[in-house]
Amino acid sequence: MTPQKRLYKTQEGKMIGGVLKGFSEYYNMDVSMVRIVYALLTVFVVGSPIIIYLILYLVLPDKSEVLQEQDPYNIENDYYD
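The chain above was modelled as a monomer; its predicted structure follows.
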């Protein structure tokens, strides 16, 4: 059974909170394009994108938490540390 794909925020390559980087990994997109679209939305749709970002920052789990749920015994990382 393949693990279910989940949306998360990540600490690797983040600019502010890691939400857009996690979003780009989830949809397999370039993070620069996601950031440009978000910036344009913030300029032209005042308020809403910022509020949505803050809510996602508070609600989304961190990537390490998601990976821990998918591999609770952390088998892969034990062999390579």
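The CA atoms of residues 9 and 62 lie 5 Å apart.
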